[in-house]
Amino acid sequence: MKQKLARRGVAVALALVLGVSLGAANAQTPKKGGTLVYASVSGPGTLDPYMASSAVELEVINNIFEGLVTLDNANATKPMLASKATASADFKTYSFELRKGVKFHNGQEMTSADVKASFERYKRISPNAKNLDAVDHFDTPDPYSFVIVLKEPNVVLLDIIKSPIYPLMILPASQKDKPARDIEVIGTGPYKLGEWVKDSHLIITRFDDYTADTSAPGRDGYAGRKTVYLDAVRYRFMPEITTRIAALQNGEAQLISSVPPDLSAKITERKDLAIREVFPTLGSYIVVNSQKGLTANVLIRQAIAAAINVDEIIEGAGGLNKRNPWMSFPGTPYFLGDTAPTPWYDIKNPAKAKELLNQAGYKGEKIIIETNSNYQWMRDTMLIVAEQLKAAGMTVDVQVTDWTTNASHMQQGTGDWNLSTTAFGPDHILGPQQWRPMLYTFPHITGNDVIDKAYAEFFQGPTLEARRASWLTIQKEVLGGGYLVKIADTGRLSGYSRKLQGQNDYAGILQLWDLWLN
Q1: pLDDT at 18 exceeding the cut of 70
Q2: What is the pLDDT of residues 62-86, one digit of tens each?
Q3: Closest among 128, 109, 225 to 170, alpha carbons compared
Q4: Cα-based angle 468, 469, 470 (whole degrees, multiple of 5)
Q5: Selection from 507, 515, 17 nearest residue 222 by Cα
Q6: pTM of the predicted model as reported, rounded to 2 decimal places
Q7: Distance separating alpha carbons of residues 94 and 158, to the nearest angstrom
Q8: What is the DSSP code string of 165-223?
Q9: In this structure, what DSSP letter does residue 493 have?
């Protein structure tokens, strides 16, 4: 049976989230103390926020570090380390007033010097640095004021700065010259790093000197007043889902990630355990390495797109899925309609793929698919894709590694691969500005004048309609050129003990403040 959103429906998903999580939380009085054990599929590859796009990294990073502005519960801009953020009428100057008395985990007070140093390091090393190309200079008029002066207008700069992917978190100025992935893990967030044993576990502990935003009545997405009740959170790295479920059942863990729908009954059959369902959270894609051998040829990439059968992937890989040919979610400002932006979405046409392969001069050379053993749906997706490509006449070699290595290869362009898969989000709920670093990084797009020009126009677009037109051009080029192949919009299931209270319905990366254990 096909695993689609209709499996339960959005109404049921929200009932699970609101009725079980929020309803139970509101009926209880928060209790301080205890260690939450969270069983995750993998450990982080890095805790350098400027280099992080993988969920297993961000679900640690977003609890340790904070930025100037962030997302509220409706994904709008809210201050975090800034108390106020304003743009000039021409959108060429952005001014930030900083909250006073904010402490880093090393006890140092955060000032504008730290903010300036952080932005300068971000511009130097982050895959998202291109979004700050229009910056002319930074000013620090006083210790609590920070100003960004642009060479040209940018109407969506705050959306860039608030993105939870490659997040522009504020680090101490002492980290300014540190190489990528080589920082001291010191932030201003409600938790600080305790112990990190790679391939085993990671512990974060409550930062007792945390400076909460007292102007807010409570939490609000990533923003608002953050209160930490837990003494610590222990991340245990458990690649196998059966091991994670067993840990939840026997009380070794109170929260587990990535539960396949067909195994959720193993959790819900117990009255003391529950499933949390959120949809949509991500969009799943086949990533095509445009700089690697055969797939540097657009005809080969288009042949891959032509061979893909989306329904086979959805049915075989499982999960919560809904077909969507676009790179934005329905109901968001940049969703452009029900008709596909290119003629390539789910055409499941091996004959067309063979025609394109012949035009490309393909002689049966090996196409390398890389996937991982941590995420079942990723592995199953690429095994199905491999069979679809073989049916179109391609020679395929499937290589399985761990998720940390797989993600690093996609992000950095290293390794020997032509195709892989991942899911992007929830940042792309916000629009094309959050997609830009993903597009240039994962399929490793370089020298594409169409995309470069469309993005330049997007950032200066005076109206939403003008920016939507630029986004249409970008999607036609990215999907039509076979840099990415869209599969579906996806949801997320996690399992938890009812002892864990305070979860909410925000579809962001794991937030560990305002949670407690009964």
Answers
A1: no
A2: 999 999 999 998 888 999 999 999 9
A3: 109
A4: 90
A5: 507
A6: 0.84
A7: 9
A8: SS--B---GGGTTPPTT------SSSEEEEEEETTTEEEEEE-TT----TTSSSEETTE
A9: E
